[in-house]
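Dear support,

I submitted the protein below through the web form. The confirmation email said the job was done, but the results page showed an empty box. After a refresh the structure appeared. I'm attaching both so you can tell me whether what I see now is the final result or a partial one.
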Amino acid sequence: MALLLWLGLSLLAAVQASAVKNCHPGCHCEVESFGLFDSFSLTRVDCRELSPSTSMPVPIPLDTAHLDLSSNTMGPLSDTMLAGPGYTTLVSLDLSNNHITKVSPNALSKLRYLETLDLSHNSLQSLPLNCFSGLPLAEVDLSHNSFQEFDMDVFAAKVNGEPVSVDLSYNKLVSVFTTLHGRVLLVQSLNLSANQLQSVPSLAGLPLRYLNLDFNPITHIKEGAFPQLKDVVYLSISGLHELQQIEPNSFKGLQSLQVLDLSNNPKLKSLSPAVFSGLDSLQELNLSGSGVASLPTNILTDLPSIKSITLGQNTHCWRTQKQGQFHRQMGQVQHNEVLNCNVEGVVL
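What the results page shows now:
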């Protein structure tokens, strides 16, 4: 029994030793096993806040899947800083809080399996159009940088045909655009909140399902503001403190939209029935914290799929069926659909 225990402890020690093999002294390396009988493993490497004298690339184990290089004051990202052994197997890479001002065109070119990239909290103002070329990216965080303009075509060169989620929140964006030129941009989720956008950007043709425009200085949403965005399911336009008007047919073309968040827009006082034109799939409408206190009486006609509406501070309305009277000529009971609210006296 003692021999078996000794052998077990020796084996465990060997596994632990292999976990830190080729691990930089300033990093923490950990092997995670999973699958039946731990038949698969991946290596996580944490190299946050290394010594300022540390040179790049930092040596890491050859089979590293997840690497955290955040908070290292890297500065401009050159072609060689991520080109060492072990980098080619990376699935996720955290480069946040590194004072990165530029990314060279080939800085990421060796990371052919990279799916998740965090470049948030840096000082980026632009990206080379081919910097993501050949990468199977699924999630890119570019929030908290200094972008003023952004060309979505930077994602045209990614591979594998899988959709990507992009976070561009908390930048200085005044313009976001795409030219496409026959290319397909598989951007599925786009967060543009907390920027300097004064109007809804032109994103026509993107296969977006989620779009966030919260906390931008938009004052007016014009007719046809969301053209060719037929796949959007969730749209958030919340916290626009200067938004005063939404024109009729502004949301026309959003036939797949299920959730519309218009909350916390205090200067938005009224909405005409035509504002909701074309929103045949809308199920949830949030107007809480806005200046809108009532809605058109025929709202259920304009929104045939609506299930709930939120108004004011704490007013919630749900679609229900009202039992009707027996119709003698038709020989059946008629049901009328109505909105029931948790606060009496709400005008709908």
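Response: this is the final, complete result; the empty box was a page-load delay. The chain has two domains: 26-51+58-196, 219-348.
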